[in-house]
Automatic annotation (TrEMBL):
Region (Disordered) location: 1-23
Transmembrane spans: 34-52, 58-78
Organism: Streptomyces lienomycini
Name the UniProt record assigns to this protein: Uncharacterized protein
Sorted UniProt keywords: Membrane, Transmembrane, Transmembrane helix
Start-end of Low complexity biased regions: 11-23
Length: 82
């Protein structure tokens, strides 16, 4: 029985299954990474807007983007546990 650590930063050693494309990055991994990037960027944008004394529209827009991206991450995480 082998256990793969999902938080491992280095690449795992080559296995026969990896030669078949099993180690390829999936669309889900790419989407999750992009959603996290959107969350971070929108939080930073909201923080900068706070210090720049921007209008309420900018705060609402960046907050909405943050909530949508974070909500999508949560839903995908919950759906993946089933």
């Amino acid at each position: 029985m082998t256990h793969e650590d999902p938080y491992r930063l280095s690449t795992p050693r080559a296995t026969p299954a990896a030669a078949d494309g099993a180690g390829a990055v999936s669309r889900g991994d790419v989407l999750r990474t992009l959603l996290w990037a959107v969350v971070v960027i929108s939080v930073v944008a909201n923080t900068v807007a706070s210090f720049a004394d921007a209008s309420v529209v900018v705060h609402l827009a960046s907050g909405l983007v943050t909530v949508l991206a974070a909500g999508t991450l949560v839903l995908r995480g919950l759906r993946g546990r089933r």
